[in-house]
Amino acid sequence: MATVDSSASDRKRVPAAERRDALVQAAVHEFAHGGLYGTPVDRIARRVGVAQPYVFSLFGSKRELFLAAVQRGFDRVAETFAEAAVRFQAGDEPDAADTLDAMGHAYIEMLASERDVLMLQHHAYAACEDPVIRERVRGCFAGLITHVQRLSGAEAERVDDFFRHGMWLNVAAAMGVEDLSAGCEWVRERQAD
Q1: Cβ neighbourhood burial of 145 (10 Å; 0-12, 13-18, 19+)
Q2: What pTM, to 2 d.p., does this model score?
């Protein structure tokens, strides 16, 4: 007579959609720290408690998992901008001059509280040597620009300035500084070396 493994029968079966979501979230964290080439898929799988072959059954390749994580990061930024626009329209952003300003404030807060999203952005841009990744990242970035234009109603030149300043903020946040200007304290200290 065969015995039944009670530990296997006691485990709750998790739907593939939930596992997929958990894998993407784990991938955001792991790729934010190790990038595309420095992050083993097995590490992401272990974080979620699945075997590596299962990951490939859902995503097909490491690149597809990376792209799903990158999409999640861009979606999170878009969501942050949309929430800020709603708050501004409701009068809940008294320090903001307009919707674009409110989105900028929200982005600064996000950079401080969601470092994985920030660092994943940097890794996404760095992985653009791969033409498939480059096309997808370009699409995500263009979509974000369109989203900001639609939400803010700002003219193209102002939206361009918003994104230039955002990239400046990304670099500053990644380095853990608040200012990147030539005359800021940390730059002056290093110039003296």
Answers
A1: middle
A2: 0.88
